[in-house]
Amino acid sequence: MPAPDFVTPLTEFAPARLRGLPARFEAQKIAFGPVVFQCVRVAWKSGLLALLDQAGKAGANIEELTEKQAAQSGLSAYAISVVLETALSAGVVRREGGHYSLTRIGDNVLHDEMTQINIDYVHDVCYQGLFALEASLREEKPLGLKALGDWPTVYEGLSELPEPARTSWFKFDHYYSDSAFAQALPPVFARKPRRLMDIGANTGKWSLHCLLHDPEVRLTLLDLPIQLAQARTTLEHAGLLARADLYPIDILDFAAPFPGGMDAVWMSQFLTCFSLTAIGHIFRRAAECLAEGGSVWVLDTFWDRQRHDIASYCLINTSPYFTAIASGNSKMYESSAIVAGAEAQGLRLVETVDDLGLSHSLLRFERAA
Ligand SMILES: C[S@@+](CC[C@H](N)C(=O)[O-])C[C@H]1O[C@@H](n2cnc3c(N)ncnc32)[C@H](O)[C@@H]1O
After folding, report:
1. Is there an atom of ligand 1 within 6 Å of 266 CB?
2. Which residue among 224, 297, 361 is best mutated to probe the pocket of ligand 1, counting the most ligand atoms within 8 A of its Cβ?
3. What is the DSSP letter of 298?
4. pLDDT tens track for 192-206
5. What pLDDT is recorded for position 279?
6. How far does the centroid of ligand 1 lie from the alpha carbon of residue 288, in Å?
7. Residue 59: CA count within 13 A, CB half-sphere
8. Which has the least CB within 10 A, 38, 221, 267, 311?
């Protein structure tokens, strides 16, 4: 009997009585998903995939890999066979005549930035905490967060996350939001805002873009105190602190007002951090603080507004992180939920721009008449 070729769809070698097997095989991929994830990650991090890349189409056998690998991270022939056989089953490598070589899937793990950022984020930030997902869903509390530290939500701990979680979190966050910032500037500044408020300013990246883009705009940055310390450093280094006001706030204190007179209120990848109830209180205060003719802008990743399934897949599967690790009651929302939340607070949607950066949509709201 020939050894299975994991790249061939099961139907091609299954007798008719086993035609139901492809679905059963897909179900096993779910059952063993975490196992495959860990092995493929080790294959990448240990340098095995890079060695196979160098070996090209001819590939390399276990003995050759063991010899080369020993000089790097010292995996034994046994360990390499465990990792590569799982990688084979997942289509990350192929094997011919005992020689392993890289497939296109393996090539993505080794070279694609988005794949690597996602793997690091899932492993360093989410993996251990997701063990507490079921209890977190029941209690709507981020019970998995204690795998990283002792905070009520991840946001209080962002600047103090242990490495490598901290680096992986910020890379994940910035990879997605940064990609949209440059494209979002023209629509926002077409309305020439003089006072712009950046809610959830984080490290101050969007505020920095704005201050560099328009020498006459003044920024007000809102975030938790610990985050604003980071933003201050960013703007200080750029010599732009004079046109910025830092306004520490816990947005979940629903009685805390926002500073008024704003031509534009900006929230990027911010509302995903909160429950629908909290989002209602944020929109209420955002609407109240607008100057005459002002706009509330929401830049976010909505899984229902994606052009490609790959984007919706990544977004939907980020929601369990929000439950188990981030806040316990937030998620990647569909755009209709956010629009309804804004409308309930006297705002109306007047403009939507899709396909910004990797997967963002920009929504503009005005006060309803
Ligand atoms: C996912 S980050 C987005 C940052 C940035 N706007 C971007 O687009 O990259 C969410 C931000 O919301 C802030 N945040 C979360 N909970 C908050 C709270 N209760 N009060 C104030 N800010 C909060 C976090 O500190 C963080 O900077």
Report:
1. no
2. 224
3. E
4. 999 999 999 999 999
5. 98
6. 20
7. 16
8. 38
**210 alpha carbon – ligand 1 mean position (Å):** 18
pLDDT of residue 176: 82
Confirm or reject: Cβ of 269 under 6 Å from ligand 1. Answer: yes
For the sheet containing 244-248, what is the strand order? Answer: 244-248, 218-223, 195-199, 262-268, 290-300, 360-367, 347-356
Q: CA 148: distance to chain centroid?
A: 17
**350 CA distance to ligand 1 middle (Å):** 25
Nearest Cα residue to 247 out of 184, 289, 296: 289
Give me the residue label for tokens 């050759």: 64
Tokens for 33, please give them. 């998903």
The rounded Å distance from CA 240 to ligand 1 centre is 21
Classify domain 32-111 at the CATH class level. mainly alpha
Quote the pLDDT of residue 9: 47
CATH class for domain 132-367?
alpha beta
Q: Classify residue 8 by its DSSP letter.
A: S
CB of 124 within 6 A of ligand 1: the answer is no
Residues of the chain with pLDDT under 70: 1-20, 70-71, 73
361 contacts 333 by C-beta, under 8 angstroms: no
Instruction: Give yes or no for residue 158 CB within 6 A of ligand 1.
Output: yes
Residue ranges of alpha helices (H) inside the chain are 21-31, 33-45, 48-55, 62-72, 77-89, 104-111, 113-120, 133-139, 154-157, 165-189, 205-213, 225-237, 276-288, 309-316, 319-321, 335-343
The domain locations on the chain are 32-111, 132-367
Report pLDDT for 177: 77
Q: Find the 267 Cα to ligand 1 centroid distance in Å.
A: 9
User: Taking the model in full, what pTM does it have?
Assistant: 0.88
